[in-house]
Amino acid sequence: MADKKILICDDEPDMADFLMVALEAEGYQVETAASSDAIVAKLKESAPDLILLDMGMPGINPDTPAMDVRNKTKTKAKILIMTGRDLEHEKKGKGLSGADGALQKGTGMDELVGKVKEFLP
């Protein structure tokens, strides 16, 4: 798994650090980005296998965050949206357009790691 790279995009430092520590413990290479500009810069430097994207990132369209990141960066990485919003409501709208999956923020770490392993076997 050490060859699998994850970019955590979250503007809450405590959340990003928590996720980074947990995923590094699983053997993933992890970087973080706290803004739209940081996401663009990180994706110019390296190509992660998976992007964990907070739906409320500064500088990212909150209505279609995955599509916004894809349009700004042309990334082919899988994108897993993390949202504090009602996930069922988002599934019915365009909020998850361009994303490969979604998780409710506050989901247990076991569920998060399981979802990541689905995307990065």
Plain-language structure description:
The protein is α/β, with parallel strands linked by helices and 121 residues long. The chain has a single domain, classed as Rossmann fold. The protein contains five helices and five strands. It has helices spanning 13-25, 36-45, 65-73, 87-92, 109-119, and strands spanning 5-9, 29-33, 50-54, 78-83, 101-104. Strands 2-1-3-4-5 form a five-stranded parallel β-sheet. The longest helix is centred in the first third of the chain and has 13 residues, at 13-25. The protein is globular. The relative contact order is 0.18. The model has no long low-confidence stretch (mean pLDDT 87).
Kindly report how far apart the N and C termini lie.
8 Å
Low-confidence stretches: none
Elements, N to C (H/E): EHEHEHEHEH
- Tertiary shape: globular
Which strand order does the major sheet show? 2-1-3-4-5
Fraction of helical residues: 40-55%
CATH class label: Alpha Beta
| Mean pLDDT over the full residue set | 87
Q: From the 3D structure, determine the CATH topology.
A: Rossmann fold
CA-atom Rg in angstroms: 13 Å
Query: What is the name of the CATH superfamily?
Result: Response regulator
Give the count of structural domains. 1
